[in-house]
Amino acid sequence: MTPPDTNLKKQKKRHKGPLIGMALGVTVAVLLLGWFISQTMMGTPEADQAPPEQAQDATGIPAEGSVSGPDDTGAPQIEEPDPALEEDPVPPAGD
After folding, report:
1. Closest CA to 55 of 74, 39, 42
2. What is the value of pTM for the model shown?
3. Which residues, at least 6 apart from 69, have a Cβ–Cβ distance to it below 8 Å?
4. For residue range 24-65, what is the model confidence (pLDDT) as tens digits?
5. Which end of the chain, C or N, has fewer beta carbons within 10 A?
6. What DSSP state is assigned to residue 46?
7. Residue ranges of the domains in the chain?
């Protein structure tokens, strides 16, 4: 089996454009990869970074009798009211 009649000058001319395109594509990919790696390794300067926002409690007004302390987990803690406060301020009529 013999190869088809090849004209090397003609094939060189036909393949010139695609080969240049592939070389440009690889060059662009290598440049983008280098830029990405440099950005990842260097990071951003501390002065350009905004401070993190404070998380705000979105639970609203605390329930009556709730207590917050240094070990507050965010869950409302109910405190039993004093029995002296539960007494009826008006004495019953008939005494």
Report:
1. 74
2. 0.40
3. 77
4. 999 999 999 999 999 888 765 565 566 666 666 556 665 566
5. N
6. G
7. 14-42
